[in-house]
Amino acid sequence: MELVSILNLSYLVASILFIVGIKQLAHPKTATRGNLLGALGMLIAVVATLFDQAILTYDWILVGVLIGSVVGIILAIKIQMTAMPQLVAVLNGFGGIASVFVAGAALQLSIPKYVTAVNYQEIVSIVFSAIVGGITFSGSFIAFGKLQGFITEKAVRYPGDQLVKILVGLTAIGLGVYGCLEPTDESIYWILSGVSLLLGVFLVIPIGGADMPVVISLLNSYSGIAASATGFVLNNNVLIISGSLVGASGIILTQIMCKAMNRSLTNVLFGGFGAVATEMKDDGDFYSGKVKSTSAEEVAMLLDVARSVVIVPGYGMAVAQAQHTVRDLYQLLTARNIDVTFAIHPVAGRMPGHMNVLLAEADIPYDRLKEMDEINSTFENVDVVIVNGANDVTNPLAKTDPKSPIAGMPILDVGNAKTVVVIKRSLSPGFAGVPNPLFIADNCLMLFGDGKKATQEMIAALKES
């Protein structure tokens, strides 16, 4: 069999492994296998590509593989689940900048050919890689900074910010067109890359923390699109296929996130959701004299006579690293023949599926996790709902106040349950920066404290009852 046939067969096998791996990632029971299949597919693709190129020496390639493997292993072992959104943002960024450098190297090699004849498919792909890859890199690291707290989570707005984005975007497009018409001028490519990096900053910095799940999934899509464009530059089929898979899945996930927030992608990118947080005033008057505090012992008494319990996890639970303690509570209640389920809002946490991943890590059965559309109609039959660190996704203002920044966003209708217990450190607002009327509802009790410690106290009180 000829080398070309072997390489194409290898790329086909790798592509199939990517597709099957993504399919299996959709369920926690098969996610580990799906991850391994995807890794195997990438290994096959990398090895086949190394044989496909006229490589003079593998020394630096092996050094890069070794360094990358060590860094990857350390990150996989050390990274906390609460920091997974930050890791995803960083990986998106690295994917984007890799596309920029690879396309730049390809341009450098092709310039001598362009003197006599220009391959416009190649040069257009190179320019596209620079624009999308640059936006992905800088935008991802701005998102990382917001998630990690290096940059304010609030939407950074200033007079004329939309005009600035438009002008920088038009500059990038203009440079891209000029680069296609004058492909022998390598300096244009790197200037275009710099402008694209600047555009990524201007696009993400005005977006508030509440929109980070959408931004991360969109940047993930960008990284795939940039990789696919680089595949056209290198004429590499597996890179085109894998990049298209990532790009398409990222766009689909972005649409799901937007639907869950009842907002358009345009509104996310240009609306500055979260800016209201900068104008947030003390809501003491809103809550004053209306909040009913409770204790772990009182909650234990409620749970002791309950027949059905729903737990709503949120980012506060993730920060407290309370998922394993929540699992212990789940097991204790289940042992008492209490029906316990978990209500999952699509945008709870800081990235798509954040709560699902946390609970799966704690070995909570997947069939106990119920999506919002499935569980909302059942809340009126629930004895006790425990909201652990969630805020905006349970806020009734989304339905009652058309002027609220979360107006129209589908929420978990926990207020329909017989009793709601909210575990929260304080009455501070969520990412949207607005008060939550649920906290002063007649059937709501506030258990103030750290999500993990409060749950441990509930467990201890239950065991004594």
TrEMBL record:
In the record, which residues are listed under signal peptide? none
Give the subcellular location. Cell inner membrane
Q: What sequence ranges are listed for the domain NADP transhydrogenase beta-like?
A: 8-460
How this chain sits in the membrane, per its record, is: Multi-pass membrane protein
A single Pfam family it belongs to is PNTB
| Catalytic activity field | NAD(+) + NADPH + H(+)(in) = NADH + NADP(+) + H(+)(out)
* EC class: translocase
Keyword terms of this UniProt record: Cell inner membrane, Cell membrane, Membrane, NAD, NADP, Translocase, Transmembrane, Transmembrane helix
Q: Name one GO molecular function term.
A: proton-translocating NAD(P)+ transhydrogenase activity
InterPro entries in alphabetical order: DHS-like_NAD/FAD-binding_dom, NADH_DH_b, PNTB-like
One GO term describing the cellular component: plasma membrane
Record EC number: 7.1.1.1
Q: Which residues cross the membrane?
A: 6-22, 34-51, 57-77, 89-111, 123-143, 163-181, 187-207, 239-258
Q: Does the keyword Kinase apply?
A: no
Function in brief = The transhydrogenation between NADH and NADP is coupled to respiration and ATP hydrolysis and functions as a proton pump across the membrane.
Query: Member of which family?
Result: Belongs to the PNT beta subunit family.
Question: Would you tell me the protein name for this molecule?
Answer: NAD(P) transhydrogenase subunit beta
